Please model this.
Amino acid sequence: MSAISFQEIIDSIENLSIEDQDYVLDLIHKRRIDNRGEEIAKNGQESLKNLSFGKGKKETDQEIKPYLLENEEQ
Model:
């Protein structure tokens, strides 16, 4: 199976109807949300595990808010 270049993917999407292009965009967006949710859950489990071994630090929401906002801007 040969790899498809990024430009070939874009060209293929552009050849779709507007409705199908919207569907592709919506599908990708939903999958990214799902993947991000899985990543957050995995990080949460890892944090809980580290806390149970004394490797983590508990912080309030106000203490971590600047960190979370900093990562959102990237």
Summary: Residues 6-72 form one domain.
